[in-house]
Amino acid sequence: MRSIKMVDLQAQYARLSSEIDQAMKQVLIQVDFIQGSAVKALESALAERYQVKHVISCANGTDALQLAFMALDLPKGSEVITPAFSYAALAEVLLLLDLKPVFVEVNPATYLMEVSAVESLITANTRAIAPVHLYGQMVSMEPLLALAKQHNLFIVEDAAQAIGSQYCTPGEHGFAGTMGHIGTTSFFPSKNLGCFGDGGAIFTNDDDLAQRLRSMANHGQTVKYQHDVLGLNSRLDTLQAAVLMAKLPHLYEFEKSRRAVAARYDEAFGPMDVLEVPSRTVDSSHVFHQYTITCKTAPMRDALKLYLSEQGIPSMIYYPRPLFLQTAYQQVVSLPISEDLCTRVLSLPICPELDVEQQDYIINNIQNFIQKSQ
Asked: Is CATH 1.10.3720.10 the classification given to domain 250-373?
């Protein structure tokens, strides 16, 4: 049996090497390194695939978030409501831009922003809501969009973990990152659509915002050496775009494989009263960037993680500490669900390259651990 990895990029490359090598070779032949044809092709392909008017590629997912909030040009001190159970990039960007993250609680079953808790946090200083589509499925956007419209707020979606997730209710339709004013995503190598380094993109249906974002990602210029706004040097490398273009046709296949692994895990772990398998929202599809279980207790989670490591099975804790307890983002708030989840969640391998033998090995070892611990 091959060694198990959280993300088996070696196996993925071995499978797609001819397509990836040819795409990268074309860039080298054309000496097309900055803002090359593959970048333009990728932006067009993503816009068509996810039915959004504008896609602006950039250097990484954090830059995508920073550019999004720079383009909105919110007054200093403006409040942005966002979940505390999340990665640090969004809160980091807000503070760098002299904005204030206001942390909201998450749903204990889906791990997503608890939309019903958002309205009570809106003040005269609130200017935006920033939902995070965590682990591969979308926050309930329909009531969030209505709330934003009611209070005249912007919505910036962090879709770094949910590219391809589709929202479909009787009232609203769209893909992750395309339903708010601006959406962002990441092409970090471990993402469902990942390049061979850093990369990111921004989605919007607003023509004015798109023009501003594209300019800001290129030093604030629309015409060379004419700088109309303050910007960044945040261009997606053409070689990375070529890798992404080679992988993009396989993304549906990747999603299908992830869902198949998730279904096997559900079947195996669902009957266990000491584990909770990931809940699916009724609002969107799940692309399973992560398969995250919740253990009954914190000591059990830590013991299970250690046991799996001893058996050669990797696992990860996303996330070990809520943002409001991080030194850089510390706030005095009470979000007990977020705190509790950080002590009990554990993410298991679910990459498309995880074969049946590896899946069985993971399932059997978790079942053995549960049996021994009871």
From this structure: no
